[in-house]
From TrEMBL:
Superkingdom of the source species: Bacteria
Species, as recorded: Paenibacillus yanchengensis
Transmembrane segments: none
One Pfam entry name: SUKH_6
InterPro entries assigned to the protein according to its UniProt record, in alphabetical order: Knr4/Smi1-like_dom (IPR018958), Knr4/Smi1-like_sf (IPR037883)
Name by which UniProt lists this protein: SMI1/KNR4 family protein
Ranges for domain Knr4/Smi1-like: 22-146
Length: 152
């Protein structure tokens, strides 16, 4: 199902990832329980098989071991907890789950209000300079492929 993406990951120089650092299923289940919903299938696949990546000075958020989660700013749940602690943020972005915050004027997030029949969420791009939000990809796999293509 993800063969094309796996092939791109083998040959890209834009994305740096480290084999053998995938998330354990129990970590993913714990995060999903706290979030109150299941993560998209393509993102779950990424977490289990790859788990981590750096691109353009930022990390694609992952799920780290629970004992490190409170201190690692590359962890999806850690960042989500920080965001949820801000009342203004919750009011403005009730369905936003940050995914990738590169060293630039944009960020990418799952729109958790848009689950499709396959369980995927839209990935949105937030242009911080212009305060504009646009659809970037229909699945996490599409998001990753597009990032690799644009930055290779």
């Amino acid at each position: 199902m993800y063969e094309r993406l796996a092939e791109k990951l083998k040959t890209t120089s834009a994305l740096k990832w480290f084999p053998g650092h995938g998330a354990e299923e129990s970590w993913i289940a714990e995060v999903e329980e706290e979030l109150g919903f299941r993560l998209p299938p393509s993102y779950r696949w990424w977490l289990v098989h790859y788990g981590n990546a750096q691109l353009s000075g930022g990390y694609i958020l992952t799920i780290d071991a629970p004992e490190h989660r409170e201190y690692y700013d590359g962890d999806l749940l850690y960042i989500h907890r920080l965001n949820k602690a801000e009342e203004w943020w919750v009011c403005r972005f009730p369905h936003r789950l940050d995914l990738f915050v590169p060293d630039s004027d944009e960020l990418y997030f799952f729109d958790t209000s848009t689950r499709d029949k396959q369980g995927e969420f839209l990935i949105m791009c937030y242009d911080l300079m212009n305060d504009l939000i646009d659809k970037y990809a229909s699945t996490f796999a599409e998001f990753l492929e597009r990032l690799i293509d644009e930055r290779s």
